[in-house]
Amino acid sequence: DVKVTQSSRYLVKRTGEKVFLECVQDMDHENMFWYRQDPGLGLRLIYFSYDVKMKEKGDIPEGYSVSREKKERFSLILESASTNQTSMYLCASSSLGTGGVDTQYFGPGTRLTVL
Amino acid sequence: GESVGLHLPTLSVQEGDNSIINCAYSNSASDYFIWYKQESGKGPQFIIDIRSNMDKRQGQRVTVLLNKTVKHLSLQIAATQPGDSAVYFCAEITRLAFGKGNQVVVIP
């Protein structure tokens, strides 16, 4: 079974702090993704990566950056956390599959609260 | 904590009945669809997928139907159980497009 783990289930930070969210997958997947999920809005893509050291902006990259130094690990960084970044953050991974994409498998999520 | 099910359309279904959840998409070139189940406080869980060269796919107690003519996707859950209570959302993976979801509440 695919396993995607996230470093924290719950996190509380203060405005202005630098925040690191870590994601690790154990299936040698090429693709990794970071989403945020807010009530009634569905999943919104922040950043994704198709390979080590490669990153692409998603729909809402402002205020975030990412790092992929190793294939299995994809980190999301909030350079200076703000209250509007309070959300559930979900990491996902997938293999290349047909046409470059395949089923995405999600981690358990990190609920971040910025005070 | 907050629930991802807030403000979502809700389907209340009696235990043992069948559930049908619908999803519409806009891009006729959409190719690969997935249905996910998300229980409160957990990450989305893959249920079933279907590619555009198929009209129907069946799993254990679940069936996905794809109507490309009207750009409509549905998930049918047979003999709904209390453990089926969750938010269900569709995804078009080649375009990384996700539906907002439907809350299913199973009444014992």
Protein model, in words:
The complex is a heterodimer of chains A (about 120) and B (about 110). The mean pLDDT of chain A is about 95. In chain A, strand 4 and strand 5 form a beta hairpin. Chain A is an all-beta fold. Chain A has no helices and 11 strands. The radius of gyration of chain A is 13 Å and the shape is globular. In chain A, the strands form 2 sheets. In chain A, strands 2, 4, 5, 6, 9, 10 and 11 form a 7-stranded mixed sheet that branches. Chain A has a 4-stranded antiparallel sheet with strand order 1-3-8-7, with no helix packed on it. In chain B, the strands form 2 sheets. In chain B, strands 1, 3, 4, 8, 9 and 10 form a 6-stranded mixed sheet that branches. A 4-stranded antiparallel sheet of chain B has the order 2-7-6-5, with no helix packed on it. Helices cover about 0% and strands about 50% of the residues of chain B. In chain B, a hairpin with a 4-residue loop joins strand 6 and strand 7. Chain B has about 110 residues and is mainly β. Classes of the chains: A mainly beta (about 120), B mainly beta (about 110). Chains A and B meet through strand 5, strand 9 and strand 10 of A and strand 3 and strand 4 of B.
Task: Report the sheet-strand fraction of chain A.
Answer: over 45%
Largest sheet of chain A: 7 strands, mixed
Beta-strand percentage range of chain B? over 45%
Derived structural class of chain B:
mainly beta
Task: Flag low-confidence runs of chain B.
Answer: 1-6
Q: Summary?
A:
The complex is a heterodimer of chains A (115) and B (108). Chain A has 115 residues and is mainly beta.
Keywords:
heterodimer; A: 115 residues; mainly beta; four-stranded antiparallel sheet; globular; B: 108 residues; 0% helix
Write the layout of secondary structure elements.
The complex is a heterodimer of chains A (115) and B (108).
Chain A: E1 4-6, E2 10-13, E3 19-25, E4 31-38, E5 42-49, E6 56-57, E7 64-70, E8 73-78, E9 87-94, E10 105-106, E11 110-114
Parallel strand pairs in A: 2-11
Antiparallel strand pairs in A: 1-3, 3-8, 4-5, 4-9, 5-6, 7-8, 9-10, 9-11
Chain B: E1 10-14, E2 19-24, E3 32-38, E4 45-51, E5 56-58, E6 62-67, E7 72-77, E8 86-92, E9 97-98, E10 102-107
Parallel strand pairs in B: 1-10
Antiparallel strand pairs in B: 2-7, 3-4, 3-8, 5-6, 6-7, 8-9, 8-10
